Amino acid sequence: MKLVFKTYTIFLLLFSGMFFSFDAQAQKFYTEEEVNTEKIFIEASREKILGNYENAVVLYKEVLKRDKNNHAAAYELARMYDVLDKDDKAEKAIKMAIKLDKSNEWYQSFLADHYQKMKKDEAAAEVFGSLVKQYPNNEYFYQKQAYFLVRSKNNVAAIKVYDKIESKFGLTEELIGKKHSLYLGLGKQKKATQELQKLTNAFPSNLEYKHMLASHLQRVGEKEKAKEIFQKILQIDPSDAQANIAVANSNKGGGNQANFLSALKPIFLQEDVDIDLKIKEMIPHIQKVANTGDKELADAAIELAQILTEIHPNNAKSFSVYGDLLNHSERPKEALEKYMQTLKLDNSVFTVWEQVMYLNFELHDFDALLKTSNDALDLFPNKAKAYYLNGIANSEKGNYDDAIDGFQQALMMSAKNERMQADIHGRLGEVYHNSKKYEKSDKSFEKALKLNPDAFTILDSYSFHLALRGEQLDKAQKMSKRSIELKPNEPRLQDTYGWVLYKMKNYDGAKEWLEKALQNGGESMPTVLEHYGDVLFQLNDKEQALLYWQKAQEKGSSSELLEKKITNKQLYE
């Protein structure tokens, strides 16, 4: 029985999209079986749209059972299997669709996508290779073929495809970039260079491409050729900062680095030159100043840093670089000033806060350290170092409970840093001792040494505090001696050892070690001078004892006990 089939046209267009098209002006006759098959296909598409994928699978399979040549149903079935992650069945179904309609590019693209999902990149490349043959004017298929060849590590074949693209569709920066990278990966430096040369030849006025070529030549050691390219850039644009820096570098040779930095002044004075480019050029020299303390180099670099702050006064990076150079040049007060200016412009970088806090500590400005660490904690409440330095500030100001809170917070936040944990426990040992919580003090010092047995500062501090209490002096002597073995010429450690011997009433031994401390720099340390005076007094050299107590006072000691010793010319402990 024949029926005129027109009713389902709209439904087919809505639900099956591209697979059934009809001439609205023509009448085509369908068998009842064909109409029923079309109904099932429409129902399957409806289930697909509603997200009922399992139901859609059953219906698409029914369509194929009724019509084995229905490639659209095979394709839709593959899509449903793909959504349901039934990959083997999806592959089988899409291959059926392709077999039934070899010219359909969508089917083959789906198969390639399926192969990509299954990490079968070589197979995907083959599919797009087939599409390239069928559609030789479709650049997308070439690009996809090359992409999958690269993924399957067949770089040689990928380059050949890119060569075809270039020959057929023309040269582009993206294309050259891909070939350049592939040649580099294959270790073919000459070929990689030729690709970039090709780009500069095609676009001779494009300075960006020349920069790419020159930078590449620098990386592969072709410094003279790179210099030639940079000089060509300067012929076009004499103010090009990167080219000027590169040429200056190439002319430097083994010459004086300070002179080289001075030669960069004209570039640093240009407002339109990116500050990051300027700073990038300074970083190796800042590092060298930090490592060597080269004063001449430091002065030349500082001059450039000053120019940075003048030309880029609203950029925090300029003041940060200036601060780094001053800090490495042992000019802490000036460095601190620049870091503070950095924070005014941008307070979001914790390393700058860290530098400020450490400089406050170095300068013994514990009021400033307390304020800075509190301000830092408002912005960075999860930074262990901020709590640690806050603890130090409170400890030095005698706020022992606040110090303990800060150190405890720092401990919680530095659990994976054993060295820092050791240092914090050592600091807690000092605070607990000053709070007269001696049992907690000893436990903290023991924890510190368990984490870092060779921490000479902790060994020194523990032994000194034991000596102050006059307890466990044999243990204190062993620890103090060990700290000196680790740091032989450190006057503070020698002073502690002498003080332990003093507490053991070994005055001759104490005198010997305190004299070593004085010879190694202790003449400027009030504590060493006072201790030496105490030893001399015990050895009945009271006149010299008074002289060294007075020296200790002159060097800045504010000890009330020392004042009493000097006033009464008598030893007090």
Strand residues, percent: under 5%
Q: Supply the number of helical segments.
A: 33
- Order of strands, main sheet, comes to 1-2
CATH class of the domain at 1-101: Mainly Alpha
Helix content percent band: over 70%
CATH homologous superfamily annotation of the domain at 1-101: Tetratricopeptide repeat domain
Q: What does the overall shape look like?
A: elongated
Uncertain residue segments:
1-26
Separation of the first and last Cα atoms? 124 Å
Average pLDDT level = 88
Overall structural class, as computed from helix and strand content, comes to mainly alpha
What's the CATH topology label of the domain at 1-101? Answer: Serine Threonine Protein Phosphatase 5, Tetratricopeptide repeat
CATH architecture of the domain at 1-101: Alpha Horseshoe
Number of strands: 2
Largest sheet: 2 strands, antiparallel
Summarize the structure.
This protein is mainly α and 573 residues long. The protein is built from 33 helices and two strands.
Give an overview in words.
Residues about 1-25 have low confidence and may be disordered. The chain has 33 helices and two strands. The longest helix has 18 residues, at about 30-50. By secondary structure, the chain is mainly alpha-helical. Helix content is about 75%, strand content about 0%. Strands 1-2 form a two-stranded antiparallel ribbon. It is elongated.
Name its key features:
single chain, 573 residues, mainly alpha, Serine Threonine Protein Phosphatase 5, Tetratricopeptide repeat, two-stranded antiparallel ribbon, 33 helices, elongated
